[in-house]
Fold these 3 entries.
Entry 1:
Amino acid sequence: MPFRGTGGLGDTEAMPIEAYAAHQPKSQLEPFRYDPGPLGPREVEVRVTHCGICHSDLAMIDNDWQISAYPLVPGHEVVGTVTAAGPEITHLKVGQRVGVGWQCGSCGECEFCESGQPALCAQQRATIVQHHGGWGSAVRTTGDFAIPIPDAIPSEFAGPLMCGGTTVFTPMMHYAVKPTARAAVVGIGGLGHMALQFLKAWGCDVTAISSTHSKEAEARKLGASDFLATKDEGALAGAANRFDFIISTVSADVDWNAYVNMLRPGGMLCIVGVPASDLRIGAMGLILFERQVAGGRTGSPQDIARMLDFAARHKVRPMIEKFPMADVNRAVAHLRSEKARYRVVLEA
Ligand SMILES: [Zn+2]
Ligand SMILES: [Zn+2]
């Protein structure tokens, strides 16, 4: 391990970070060494033990969103140990186990930052946008965005919770999904398999929706009491007015009106996957029954901390496949092949 632990709070000595970077869109990852510079007063450095691979990492490698800067070090489902903390950090100790997710900074001054919602800050900084992420020996973050991991959650499972887990859990909190709700999860993959577990533990009756029945047995084990296959003729139409909350994790373009029509009056369709095309939804289906369509994002540090606490108490765990960090290209290829069940985790 090229990176050594440092002395303690306030130690700002910089050591080079050995990472894996993409140097151009859609390229392989290559070893990449960088000097992170002096540690800022509110920053921490985290020695990486595990880092998940999220579909957003692939999108950033490929520059799908036109915001990538190269060399690009992906990795925003980071778990590791604090090895250095700036002098203004009081809530974390060197040696403490933490996770780092999508966000690594915010302005600290706007109304959203001041009201404890830095995930909504317009000046927020992301771990892998103009910043080097967790596929390497260490990562830097503003201390507020390094979240302590409960002891009950092993590090290999904590990574995928830091982005995928909070993406499906935060909307349940922010949109006040009731335990009495009938809920549906669209897409049983990296996000959906965690959404099934969270909604079940929340108390909801959960239906899994997937294209075919191939994942039915697994979905039921993860908490689904019912399963709809969209390729079955009439399956969605037969579920009209059934759900209070539908969370969509798919990146495919689907018939969104079919999903709106499955909502009960006042129900919500929450979009957390990113389809290629804009959503086309008829207004009357919303107007007549006061239905809502909303977006959900990864959440602020306190949302993530609550999610981790909930996951620890209810034993919500992602299903993972592990690869050594040095096999990062094989791990990426596996996720791209759509064969991963369900999250891929790199291990240092
Ligand atoms: Zn992610
Ligand atoms: Zn702000």
Entry 2:
Amino acid sequence: MNEYDSNRISDLFKSNGYLRSFDSQNVNCYILNTCHIREKATEKVYSDIGRLKKNYRNKTKPLVLVTGCVAQAENDEMIRREPYIDAVIGPQSYQNIPNILFSLNKKIKKFNLTDFDVIEKFDKLNSLKNSDTNVSVFVTIQEGCDKFCNFCVVPYTRGSEYSRSPEEILKEVDHLVLNGAKEITLLGQNVNAYLYKKKFRLSDLILKIGKNKKLKRIRYTTSHPKDMTDDLINCYKQEKKLMPFLHLPVQSGSDKILKNMNRKHTREEYLDSIDKLKKINPEIKFSSDFIVGYPGESEKDFNDTISLIKKVNFINSFSFIYSPRPGTPASKMKMVDTKVQKKRLIILQNLLEKIQMQKNNDKIEKVEEVLVENRLKNQIQYFGRTKDLTPVILNDVSDVDIGNLIKVRINKSDKKITVW
Ligand code: SF4
């Protein structure tokens, strides 16, 4: 979502006469769009600004804007701790950037904009055309979260659940397709909680978007297991453009830990959804997120997670040691010993890697459908993805193939990349 937000921020700047620069040594305005999901992200902001200060010691100071969830969470504290920052702008306030720039350039004052004005944000952004011209693009359809998992800051930084109007989403999708998009990934912190005016659901939206003749693929992320409803599961049969791959974070395979996390679903309910999806479309593959060493996690709880991984056979996943986020209920709970956490993470990641390698190896000599996305920096090879999102390096294709679905025979693979 930060990638999508960064592009929209860039569109806002462009409409105010700014140009995007990839040379951070010579800019008038420096924007750090931040994520607060891990502890290190906050400290990274301060170290990035420290580097910036050094670079600009003998030059005119650029305007420094910190946007995103770190800005939302840290608020005034950021300007107090680092006076080099001119404005902190939360994720629901970046539509105000043009006004802030005007005032900052006139040296009126420093800014802290961290209100939750998500309706105003999308009202303003809807009138601004999304200038993304990639083959595979993101579209935010939903923001915020009402689930309040005990470890997570999102409900405090992105606010409560909000769904954009289907008309505006469809307009944005049509525009992006005209710009060359062939694959749309619908985004939301809780994307499958999408519900417009209490009746229009994510499944309705997917079926509508699927009618766009030039669009080839649809994906969505990130989903909550509790919102994996039957109408959405049925979409995997009804809409061929919906790719047979689902990122469905489970975090833990232990009912005790899921309860401690306030995840609002059980291991069995999670596995039930997986079974239903496999029945609807046997091709479907899964990925997940795992938190290792959550407060109270015993050896048995950890083994429950391992057994769940073996059962589902996730083809790739994100896994982290539990990191307490200030202000969340879990941050007050007793931590698991660091050595134990690290040991468990290694076991879990080794298993995930083994499954992933096996899945990639299984593709060797098989023919896969790949969407060609772009030419690689080496200018010789091309990049694409299979239906299940596996990255593929392509030889013997050309610029005319960009944006097309092509059939390729996979001839070798490693942990991450399958080579054709
Ligand atoms: S559902 Fe996801 S975004 Fe919401 S609180 Fe839980 S982990 Fe955070």
Entry 3:
Amino acid sequence: MASYAPLSNNQVSHFKTFGFLILENLLDQASIDHWRQQIWRELETSLETPETWPKQGGLDGYQYDPPESALVHHPALTPIIQQLGGGAFVPSGGIPIIRWPEQDKSWQMPQSGHIDAYGGRWLPFMIGATTYLYDVEPSGGAFIFWPGSHHTAHRYFLENSTHVDGSFLRTKNFSWNLFCDNPETGGKEFVARAGDVVLWHSYLTHDGSMNINDSPRIALFARWHHHRRRAPAFRYEIPEDLWKYWVI
Ligand SMILES: O=C(O)CCC(=O)C(=O)O
Ligand SMILES: [Fe+2]
């Protein structure tokens, strides 16, 4: 096949093995500037005036302005998601999340994380993406993930397939440690520049982390679901082959 593929074979194979893929400098400066403007406008403060920053949150229920400017619609991501899902993955949403500085605290690696899709209603999806609007240094509120943990979650759901609707969260002695590939070694901080992107499999264990630096960690999130997400037969199926509904 001679058709253009945005990701190389090596990148695809890294994604399949480790459940994540970092794409440096993927997003253009104009998009980053536009997001910075709209988010500071919504917060009614600015990077230069820390005394007026909220202590936490600030973007609950955020709607991108205009809606097409959401990360999930960014033209640099669309062909990549097309390559991975063959057209079956559709934009699902995702909001910005800020980790405001907490400089009086001491930084710690989160003990374990979670997988998404269970924050309220069960919303299964295929793949997520995270980017930052400003560079994030170590201890600066990085997105944390456990490389390879998508295989752990897959094995868990193969053995407990009726629990994929979220009932696993209510089983006796449940702990998210079950989903970390190796809770002892801890996760990996996504230390990155503004506009770098990490793509992550929906089964990849991840979490937020404390920001003890002086600048807010502003991250944008995006998720894509399968166009058959609403069909019960699809929702409850745990394929032996983790990549059954992918084209990779
Ligand atoms: O803020 C972060 O880095 C992670 C947030 C997260 O995992 C979530 O909202 O599900
Ligand atoms: Fe999450």
